[in-house]
Specification:
Layout (H helix, E strand, L loop, with lengths): L45 E16 L6 E2 L4 E16 L2 E14 L3 E8 L3 E2 L4 E2 L4 E7 L1 E2 L1 E2 L3 E11 L4 E10 L11 E2 L6 E14 L5 E13 L2 E8 L1 E4 L5 H9 L13 E9 L2 E7 L2 E4 L4 E12 L2 E5 L4 E3 L5 E14 L2 E14 L1 E14 L1
Parallel strand pairs: 9-13
Antiparallel strand pairs: 1-2, 1-3, 1-26, 3-4, 4-10, 4-11, 5-8, 6-7, 8-17, 11-12, 12-14, 14-15, 15-19, 15-20, 16-18, 18-22, 19-21, 20-21, 21-24, 22-23, 24-25, 25-26
């Protein structure tokens, strides 16, 4: 990472993404590499960072298909503190880093349900009419997510051409705030292992002048099991119960519900399992004021896998419906306010999600070098 114009460049990879949680799921926190993070910082510096991320979802995507259930409100304010220390190891720029997020849920949380089937009642002729659209009230508990500890090494480090390559392993022990009795929790209480790879090079211009670069990131995840978990089914209500159900109940002595909630919340002890997942990020940062480290960068994010299941106590396996399959567009702007203080603003917009909420995110990141 060059120190042009006395402005340090933040080679600061990974932090926390807003969680992807739908019915019965826990918060799944992941590393999030941002443009400029691929530029190697100087050796023997300390970097303190603060993130504030606001995320809001107004729809939930089915596991497969393009339909999104409305009547959804899943909103969080996530605050992250992070520390990075760089050093030299046999001529290779390396470092260690640590961060911990706090997840705060904003107001009531609910996920839309596109169609609630009617009950099957043989005494009334079998399958009854659908209740139609509705929503699930999601119980939630704010708290600290799992802390992440990582190392990194820049195996490619050529400031003259603006070409860098970094490898960064991470580990997150199950030490966050976890509440097995709620749908949405600050932590999912599993050992998490991550391998992060980054590459950046200048495409047009030079690192000392206005330039256009490409920056690519890969994050691969493995997860342990949470044997102290539970499958939490939410309270479900219909938006409008058809009048026919009042007729059915008057004839049947109340065999089918004609008032909300249609389903009460329930907790079933279980072990939680998440399959491996993969994330890809590609950015095209355009640096228009090199002396201030100022750039704008469009980007795209894609994740795969991460199927979440529960092995129920007493037998049986349930698919939670949650995945980490998301396509997201991003726009980032950044500059240095002083030689040692960087500010970055990030906007993120989901265009497709399978098995999770459709998020709209706004984030501010501050970095202080000392």
């Amino acid at each position: 990472m060059s120190n042009r114009g006395k402005y340090l460049r933040a080679g600061l990879f990974s932090m926390v993404l807003p969680f992807a949680a739908a019915l019965g799921g826990h918060a799944a926190l992941a590393s999030d590499s941002l443009p400029g993070d691929g530029i190697a910082p100087p050796a023997n510096v300390n970097i303190g960072m603060f993130y504030n991320i606001f995320t809001d979802a107004g729809g939930v995507g089915a596991v497969r298909g393009g339909d999104y259930s409305q009547n959804t409100h899943i909103s969080t304010d996530i605050v992250v503190g992070r520390y990075i220390r760089t050093f030299d190891v046999d001529g290779v720029l390396s470092g260690a880093q640590f961060y911990v997020p706090y997840v705060g849920f904003l107001g009531g949380q609910e996920a839309g349900i596109s169609n609630i089937p009617g009950p099957y009642v043989p005494a009334l002729g079998g399958q009854l009419p659908s209740y139609g659209a509705g929503h699930a009230n999601l119980s939630h508990a704010s708290g600290f997510a799992q802390p992440y500890l990582g190392l990194f090494s820049y195996l490619l480090n050529n400031p003259k051409t603006g070409t860098y390559g970094v490898v960064a392993p991470w580990i997150a022990p199950p030490l966050g705030t976890f509440n097995r009795n709620v749908n949405l929790s600050g932590s999912q209480n599993t050992w998490t292992y991550e391998l992060e790879l980054g590459f950046r090079t200048v495409l047009l211009g030079t690192p000392a002048t206005q330039n256009l670069a490409i920056e690519m990131w890969s994050e691969s995840y493995l997860f342990g099991a949470n044997d102290r978990s539970a499958y939490v089914s939410p309270e479900v209500s219909a938006n409008s119960i058809p009048p026919i159900y009042g007729v059915y109940n008057s004839l049947s002595g109340g065999l089918v519900p004609d008032s909300n909630p249609l389903q009460a919340s329930a907790v079933i002890p279980a072990s939680f399992h998440e399959q491996p997942s993969q994330e890809i990020r590609i950015y095209l940062p355009y640096e228009f004021a090199p002396s201030m480290g100022a750039f704008v960068a469009p980007g795209v994010f894609q994740s795969f896998g991460g199927k979440q299941t529960y092995n129920l106590q007493g037998g049986g396996k349930l698919d939670s419906g949650n995945r980490t399959e998301e396509t997201q567009l991003r726009l980032i702007g950044s500059t240095f306010l002083s030689p040692t203080l960087q500010v970055m603003a990030i906007g993120e917009y989901d265009i497709a999600v399978h098995g999770g909420p459709l998020n709209r995110n706004v984030e501010i990141r501050l970095a202080k070098f000392f």
